[in-house]
Structure formats: structure tokens, C-alpha cells
């Protein structure tokens, strides 16, 4: 058998060789079935560390083997667009709330929060924070 060239091939062939269905792997790894389906179909190219570790344990793979096949979003081409969108996202978080914001890099859901702090004169200052649920993008 040839060496897997993609993350989807690695996960699906290892799962099949282990005798698991997608549903069985989801149960064994404690990862949602929809995530397994997205990985094996090639829609999911970058995994959060927790999912990577759960899959590695369930499939008896080295975490670095999985990580080596992941594809990180290319942000170098549109850095200036992302910077512009980031400011808009910050304002939207403060004005419209924490839900419904999309990552400017990969279009996945952003996990948002507002940090409340106080300045030296005891005035409340609100700082929007966000991180992507799929890629390394974050607003600090």
C-alpha cells in the first residue's frame, strides 16, 4: 500500500485497517461524527490539538504524523484584508454580541468573548477577543 499523501487518506485508511466505521471511530475517540466525516472528505485540513490527540490515541498513530499532513491556511496573500476585517469584527463583537462571527481566514465560526478591565481612573474598558474554531486566527 502506498504512503498516505493527505490527512483524509491517513485517517480513513488507518480507520479501515483498524476495522472501525466512521461512527465507531467517533465513539472510540470521543470526536463528533461530523468532524470525522469532514476530515475524511477533505473538508477539514487543520485540526485543533485536542482532536488531533484524540484521533492519534484512538487510531494508535503518532500525533506528529497527523500534524505533518495538516494544511495551514495561507494568510500571507491577504494579510491586509484580514487586518481590515479584524477591526470590523472587533466592533461587531462589542455592538452586536458574541455569536455569528466568521473567521476572515477560513470562514469558520469564531469563539468570541469580551474582556472587561478597568483603567487607572477606574473606568470600565471592554476589549473584544476572538479565536477561530478551526485555524490559528485570533484577535487578542
Description:
The protein folds into 2 domains: 7-68, lambda repressor-like DNA-binding domains (434 Repressor (Amino-terminal Domain)); 79-139, no CATH class. It is built from 6 helices and 3 strands, in the order H-H-H-H-H-H-E-E-E. It is α+β, with helices and mostly antiparallel strands and 140 residues long. The protein is elongated and about 65 Å long. It has a 3-stranded antiparallel sheet with strand order 1-2-3, with helices on one face. Helix 2 packs across helix 3 (33-41). The model has no long low-confidence stretch (mean pLDDT 85). A hairpin with a 5-residue loop joins strand 1 (110-118) and strand 2.
Break the fold down into its secondary structure elements and pairings.
Layout: H1 7-17, H2 22-29, H3 33-41, H4 49-59, H5 63-68, H6 79-96, E1 110-118, E2 124-132, E3 138-139
Antiparallel strand pairs: 1-2, 2-3
Helix pairs in contact: 2-3
Brief descriptors of the model:
140 residues, alpha+beta, 434 Repressor (Amino-terminal Domain), 2 domains, 6 helices, 3 strands
What string gives the helices and strands in order?
HHHHHHEEE
- Indicate the overall shape: elongated
Radius of gyration: 19 Å
Mean pLDDT metric = 85
**How many domain regions?**
2
- Report the CATH C-level class of the largest domain: Mainly Alpha
Biggest sheet architecture = 3 strands, antiparallel
Q: Got a strand count?
A: 3
- Secondary structure category: alpha+beta
CATH H-level superfamily title of the largest domain:
lambda repressor-like DNA-binding domains
Total of helices: 6
What's the CATH architecture name of the largest domain?
Orthogonal Bundle
| Oligomer status | single chain
Unreliable residue runs: none
Named CATH topology of the largest domain = 434 Repressor (Amino-terminal Domain)
Strand order of the largest sheet: 1-2-3
Which range best describes the helical content: under 10%, 10-25%, 25-40%, 40-55%, 55-70% or over 70%? 40-55%
Strand content: 5-15%
